[in-house]
């Protein structure tokens, strides 16, 4: 352990260093600049989002489209890199106390209940692209919609999962990491795999 006297000597030598003033000014400027930017952007992230309840925590790096069709409930946590691209039918609804972890993408029409946990890098595709007309590029064909995605309360979706359009995930279900969900999941079921299959029920 370094003695107090030794620390004082080191501090005095550092103060005599030619770059001391510049390092100190740089540190002060960095703190002031960061505080000012956060102070300005904090209210703006609420102003330009759609229907958002106060008490939610939303990273300023969230990417949004069609803001009027996005509803964010009370005390929702949305982390950095999340993409919210709402559809023009039902939009995106995120219920109270739910959490979206980094780099999750929600596209189309998706309804998420309360107390839902969504791990990083999850894809919720509540819509798709038409591909029936081979004379046209797929990106120029009309979008498709099978009713969007419904995720009921208290669901846990593991990292790197994909959920496709038309799926309903029942209350209390668990989706194992890396799964691709192409069909409905019953309440309190645990599913895993590609495509996701039932492992067991939490009620058993």
UniProtKB/TrEMBL annotation:
Q: Does the keyword Membrane apply?
A: yes
Q: Which SUPFAM superfamilies match?
A: Trimeric LpxA-like enzymes
Keyword vocabulary terms for this entry: Acyltransferase, Membrane, Transferase, Transmembrane, Transmembrane helix
Q: Does the keyword Glycoprotein apply?
A: no
Q: Name one GO molecular function term.
A: acyltransferase activity
The protein's matches in Gene3D superfamilies, at most eight in alphabetical order, are given as: Hexapeptide repeat proteins
Q: Superkingdom, according to UniProt?
A: Bacteria
Family in the record: Belongs to the transferase hexapeptide repeat family.
Q: What is this protein called?
A: Acyltransferase
Q: What is the lineage of its organism?
A: Bacteria, Pseudomonadati, Bacteroidota, Chitinophagia, Chitinophagales
